[in-house]
Design brief:
Structural class: mainly alpha
CATH architecture: Up-down Bundle
Number of helices: 18
Strand content: under 5%
Helix content: over 70%
CATH topology: Amino acid/polyamine transporter I
Shape: globular
CATH class: Mainly Alpha
Number of strands: 0
């Protein structure tokens, strides 16, 4: 093990950074969320539009902060510059919690799709959670081989996962064009603020990850240029794909069918094409989830290392091996994600997914809120920063009391670790 050092040739280029963002964002959400969103009808579609717009605003704020404060390096540094070390620790710790729950929830989503091919998995108690744990640790082994290996794996899985999504978009266009399918009629009376906010909280989970290049800026080549470009391009492309794909499933399938399906995209293809193709979509969905878990596992190693290098986590987390992999941070983080799966194993697959989804969303929103407020305080794109902060607060309310409450409890749980880290620092020579 060694402390962090620069290793030329081992960082992510622009396309790999875009793949990291899109690969982390396009995970379980586009393949599984239509089941959760089906009861919301047109509120879900409007929720997507609001979420995509809000996410693009926040992405612009992150990109602007990266350009304006290159020495800060990442979101933790932005908050440190604006508000000091303790707020930076709390928001980084909460974001780390969100990554752990994201790893667990996306793993469970992959298992949900696997259960559509192997029904025995869903019929056996605790077996879904066990299969999700196997996926988490397999992707941990990939990341232990270094950031380049994880980045190459990310680009491969992104290329594969885009194929069925583009196929669904083309299928929906053909079905609507020949009149064999129709969109659910829009009823203005269906739209209400409560359902719209709840739908937006669910859809935001699917767009979590636009900040990944910023968080992993230390592993990106020429970060001042490539991080903002990757952030904006990755967010915009992913948002467009999500809007088209998820709206087609939500509005063209009967609500009862979509909400009861463990694999709604596969159900959509089977409904409008033939029964054999649904299984093919399920295979691609599993690949998508595997790729997303890989990307988030990379993040759950990089963030603790970055925090340790800043002195807000013990230096123990900053150690790397000969490949530059933060072995200790990766292993400990995967162990925590495994605990999350054990903790929720008694729930149904959909129940595990939705609880972890909302927990991850609410925990991440604190990072978005503090970074938006940091941009306001540092006089960086203040108009966008104000809109981004308002959007983050609104979505926190939509995430619900349980998930937001748990995120605050988990934030408090990190304070003793921060205080212990401060006491253990070696005083600077003066």
């Amino acid at each position: 093990m060694s402390n962090h050092t620069e290793r030329p040739g081992r960082k992510l280029g622009l396309f790999a950074a875009i793949a990291l963002i899109m690969g982390n964002m396009i995970g379980s959400g586009v393949f599984l969320l239509p089941a959760s969103l089906a009861p919301y009808g047109w509120n879900a579609v409007l929720g997507w539009i609001i979420t995509i717009a809000g996410t693009l605003v926040l992405a612009w704020v992150f990109a602007a902060l990266t350009r304006a404060l290159p020495a800060a390096r990442d979101p933790t540094g932005f908050v440190t510059e604006a508000f000091g070390e303790l707020p930076a620790f709390l928001v980084a710790w909460l974001y780390l919690v969100s990554i752990w729950s994201a790893v667990a929830s996306i793993s469970m989503a992959g298992v949900s799709y696997l259960s559509s091919l192997l029904p025995a998995i869903g019929a056996t108690a605790f077996l879904p959670a066990l299969c999700a744990m196997v996926l988490v640790w397999t992707m941990t082994l990939v990341n232990l081989r270094g950031v380049r290996t994880a980045g190459n794996f990310q680009m491969l899985t992104l290329a594969l996962k885009l194929l069925p999504l583009l196929g669904v978009i083309v299928l929906a266009a053909l079905v609507l064009g020949d009149g064999s399918g129709e969109i659910r009629p829009f009823e203005p009376s269906e739209v209400n603020s409560g359902q719209l906010s709840s739908a937006a909280a669910l859809t935001l989970f699917a767009l979590l990850g636009f900040e990944c290049a910023s968080v992993a800026a230390g592993q990106v080549e020429n970060p001042t240029v490539n991080v903002p470009r990757a952030t904006l391009w990755g967010t915009a492309l992913t948002g467009l794909i999500y809007l088209l794909v998820c709206s087609a499933v939500a509005l063209m399938l009967p609500e009862a069918v979509a909400s009861a399906s463990p694999a709604p995209l596969a159900t959509f293809v089977e409904t409008y094409w033939n029964s054999g193709t649904g299984q093919v979509v399920s295979v691609f969905a599993i690949i998508s989830c595997v790729g997303a878990v890989n990307g988030w596992v990379l993040m759950q190693g990089e963030l603790p290392r970055s925090m340790a290098e800043r002195g807000i986590l013990p230096a123990w987390f900053a150690a790397t091996d000969a490949r530059g992999a933060p072995v200790r941070a990766l292993l400990l983080s995967s162990a925590v994600a495994t605990f999350f799966l054990v903790f929720t194993a008694s729930r149904s697959m959909q129940g595990i997914y939705e609880f972890l989804l909302l927990l991850s969303t609410s925990a991440t929103l604190w990072l978005y809120l503090l970074c938006a407020l940091a941009a306001w305080r540092m006089k960086v794109v203040r108009g966008f920063a104000l809109i981004g902060a308002a959007y983050a607060l609104w979505t926190l309310w939509g995430a619900g009391v349980e998930a937001t409450g748990w995120s605050l409890v988990l934030a408090g749980a990190g304070v003793p670790l921060y205080l212990w880290t401060r006491r253990s620092r070696v005083p600077a020579a003066g």
